[in-house]
Amino acid sequence: SYTLSSTLVSSTRRVAVINGQHVTEGEAVGNATVLKIRKHDVILQSPQRQITLKLLPDIVKKQP
Fold first, then answer.
1. Which neighbouring-strand residues pair with 52?
2. How many angstroms separate the Cα of 6 from the Cα of each of 30, 35, 44, 63, 64?
3. Residue 37 backbone phi and psi in degrees, to 5
4. Which helix (DSSP H) or strand (DSSP E) does residue 41 occupy?
5. Is 60 exceeded by the pLDDT of residue 62?
6. DSSP code, position 20
7. How many whole angstroms separate alpha carbon 33 and alpha carbon 30?
8. How far apart are CA 27 and CA 5, in angstroms?
9. To 5 degrees, how large is the angle CA 27–CA 6–CA 15?
10. Phi, psi of 28 (to 5 degrees)
């Protein structure tokens, strides 16, 4: 199981935090490889399948 906490995408670098580990494109996390880091999601390739991890938007409570 993989949990995407954050991404940083700029003109010079792309970094994601998955399961508490800072990774860049091409690096391994668990038994998967990071294929692509985008602003709101990350694509991993595991031996069995391709996985897309998405950042969930913050839930904002509305005050009455």
1. 43
2. 17, 16, 15, 27, 31
3. -115, 120
4. strand 41-45
5. no
6. T
7. 8
8. 17
9. 35
10. -100, 145
CB 9 within 8 A of CB 39: yes
Whether the full predicted model's pTM is greater than 0.70, yes or no, is: yes
With cut-offs at 50, 70 and 90, classify the pLDDT of residue 58.
Answer: low
Given a cut of 80, whether residue 57 has pLDDT beyond it is: no
Distance CA 46, CA 9 (A): 22
> Per-residue pLDDT tens for 14-51?
999 999 999 999 999 999 999 999 999 999 999 999 99
Are 41 and 52 in contact by the 8 Å Cβ rule? The answer is: yes
